[in-house]
Design a protein that fits this description.
Number of helices of chain A: 10
Order of helices and strands of chain A: EEEHEEHEHHHEHEHEEHHEEH
Strand content of chain B: under 5%
CATH architecture of chain B: Orthogonal Bundle
Oligomer: heterodimer
CATH topology of chain B: ABC transporter involved in vitamin B12 uptake, BtuC
Shape of chain B: globular
Strand order of the largest sheet of chain A: 6-7-8-3-9-10
Largest interface: A-B, 55 and 39 residues
Strand content of chain A: 25-35%
Helix content of chain B: over 70%
Helix content of chain A: 25-40%
Number of strands of chain B: 0
Shape of chain A: globular
Largest sheet of chain A: 6 strands, mixed
Number of domains of chain B: 1
Distance between the termini of chain B: 39 Å
Chain lengths: 273, 346
């Protein structure tokens, strides 16, 4: 089981150029759990994730890992604890699956060392967990979207971090693959205790797979907690400006959001009141 | 671990390219052939006996042996120069993440050329030892300028911005070079010989002057290969893996400038070798820089030496400068690559 970590953000303000995207966000990431950041487009979800992964320097406020300020931790050392899979990584031309997964070992290798037995094992294990071992020799270009995403996650797993950040790992995937990816991430969390924080678009899948939800609106954290406590029709309206009714997901028992538009509504008066 | 065993059974290694050993063997054979050709072929062909005499016997004094002896530093220099250009090319492609990057992209050639022209025109500079520092200073300053301009604005030094900055700077500098040269015919004569690019004038002192730059550049390149591999997956992912991308770009660019600047200073701007070597290797072995960098050095050395031999044969009884030969071979390949290059590679 992965060790417990205290990852905290305090009064985080960040943005690009003059534009403030995050406004005074304070939070603690629940260790060894799956957290999902939700919110409307351009509300700062990705920016929050990137700032916490030190891709963006906060203009004020601080982030600490186990009490130590993030920018004081040497970058390679931090990369052995905290991994990140960005939304659109680049596939180098002609790269094979095993080569790509192997690049996740970078923070564990020194400038002069070659490949150790541990490196090989970590790569093999990561590929097995994500079920891409048979694809080891294939070129990334030959793979389907779902396979590709599994390979990227395997790369992040080869990094063997206790905490893993994923920026929209299911975007552009068919529903089958979305569920497959989220299942695999849940396996990972249950089996190894990996702390997972991700940005997801699908509110219902978020509610089903998350232990903890962070709800963002215009750069501010407006609600957080267990999905069953947080996901209400009021919150959905606050975040998305959308009317909805929240029911119990018949499969998982988690909250499920049913949107209400202007059309196809059986009893308009009843739901609008 | 079952899957590790499975991997071993399939002979998959996460990083050793599939055809690495055969490529290494073929490369070694080609290297030997190119060295032999460079020693024996030229405007005056020599026999095997004369080669042996030239290489191993002291002072036999035969004309043929002397010819061979004089071709030794030239051969050594062209190997070194080709290796430097090959590695410089792969470094620049890695730094800019652009498959058609060549030393000219970061403005290295033009920066070096401008400084050499200024040296010739205003400071009466005429020796290789002086060229090299001027050319390096020019190359370095230009790279810093390009890097500075390319880093401005959001997102730091992105590949696209670097390329645009490089192209713009290159155009501006080349017009300066012309502006300085046109009113001074004596500069033009001296400069023209240098500008074409030739390893024909190389002697042991060129080799000596060049060596430290080559060694430092190669060491930096090899040591930064793993980090550059991580950066190939995008800056965000590389940062997540613990790479300081801005620092890495700077260091790798400096190594590229050292290699290419020194080669340019001593032999004149020789184009396309970096592009050619890197692409041939990438096509066969893939894009892992731990292999790409050393193999580009080998391929660059072979390409330049063979080009030099071709130049000697085609241009008989004189010889064609190697820069002309590489341009002839390289230009069509550049066009093909540019047409094939995917936009996403930027």
């Amino acid at each position: 089981m992965k060790p417990t970590h205290h990852f905290q953000a305090e009064h985080l303000v960040a943005g690009y150029d003059q534009k403030k995207v995050l406004n005074d966000i304070s939070l603690e990431i629940p260790s060894n759990k799956i957290s999902v950041i939700i919110g409307a487009n351009a509300c700062g979800k990705s920016t929050l994730l990137k700032t916490m992964a030190r891709l963006i320097k906060p203009t004020s406020g601080g982030i600490t890992l186990d009490g130590q300020s993030l920018d004081r931790i040497p970058s390679k050392q931090l990369a052995r604890v905290l991994g990140l899979l960005p939304q659109s990584p680049i596939v180098p031309e002609g790269i094979t699956v095993s080569d790509l997964v192997g690049r996740g070992r970078f923070p564990h290798q020194s400038m002069f060392s070659g490949w150790s037995k541990k490196d090989y094992e970590a790569v093999a294990e990561a590929m097995e967990i994500m079920n891409v071992t048979e694809l080891a020799n294939h070129h990334i270009d030959e793979l389907s979207g779902g396979q590709r995403q599994r390979v990227w996650i395997a790369m992040a797993l080869a990094q063997q971090t206790d905490i893993l950040f994923l920026d929209e790992p299911t975007t552009f995937l068919d529903i089958t693959y979305q569920v497959e990816i989220l299942d695999l991430l849940t396996d990972l969390n249950e089996k190894y205790g990996t702390t997972i924080v991700m940005v997801l678009h699908d509110i219902n899948l978020s509610a089903r797979y998350a232990d903890h939800i962070f709800a963002l609106r215009q750069g501010e954290l407006i609600s957080e907690g267990a999905p069953s406590d947080v996901i209400t029709s009021e919150l959905i309206h606050d975040i998305f400006g959308l009317h909805s009714t929240v029911i119990e997901d018949p499969v998982s028992g988690s909250p499920s959001v049913i949107p209400i538009g202007r059309h196809h509504v059986r009893q308009k008066e009843a739901v609008w009141s | 671990m079952s899957s590790l065993a499975e991997l071993k059974k399939q002979q998959v290694s996460p990083h050793v390219p599939k055809y690495f050993t055969p490529v290494l063997v073929v490369g070694a054979i080609l290297l030997i052939i190119s060295v032999a050709a460079s020693l024996s072929l030229g405007s005056r062909p020599v026999s095997l006996q004369e080669i042996m005499n030239g290489l191993f016997a002291e002072g036999t004094g035969s004309y043929g042996a002397n010819v061979v002896e004089s071709r030794i530093p030239r051969t050594v220099f062209s190997l070194m120069c080709g290796a430097a250009l090959g590695v410089s090319g792969s470094l620049m492609q890695a730094v800019t993440r652009n498959p058609i990057a060549d030393p000219s992209i970061l403005g290295v050639n033009m920066g070096a050329a401008l400084f050499v022209v200024i040296g010739i025109a205003f400071f009466n500079i005429s020796t290789a030892g002086e060229y090299i520092w001027l050319a390096l200073a020019g190359a370095l300053l230009t790279s810093i300028l390009v890097f500075g301009v390319g880093s401005m604005g959001r997102g730091g030094a992105t590949p696209l911005k670097l390329i645009l900055a490089g192209a713009a700077t290159s155009a501006a500098l080349s017009s300066l070079v012309i502006a300085i040269m046109i009113p001074r015919s004596y500069v033009m004569d001296q400069f023209r010989f240098w500008q074409v690019g030739s390893v024909g004038a190389a002697d042991w002192s060129s080799v000596q002057t060049f060596s430290p730059f080559l060694v430092v550049g190669l060491v930096i390149a090899v040591l930064s290969a793993s980090a550059l591999n991580a950066m190939a997956l995008g800056d965000e992912l590389a940062t997540g893996l613990g790479v300081k991308t801005s620092t890495l770009r700077l260091i790798a660019a400096i190594a590229a400038v050292l290699l290419c600047g020194a080669a340019t200073a001593l032999a004149g701007p020789i184009g396309f070798v970096g592009l050619l070597a890197t692409h041939v290797v990438r096509l066969i072995l893939g894009s892992n820089l731990r292999y790409l960098i050393p193999m580009s050095a080998l391929t660059g050395a072979i390409v330049l030496t063979i080009s030099d031999v071709c130049g000697r044969l085609v241009g008989r009884p004189g010889e064609l400068e190697v820069g002309v030969v590489t341009a002839f071979v390289g230009a069509p390949i550049l066009i093909i690559l540019a047409m094939k290059a995917k936009v996403r590679s930027l």
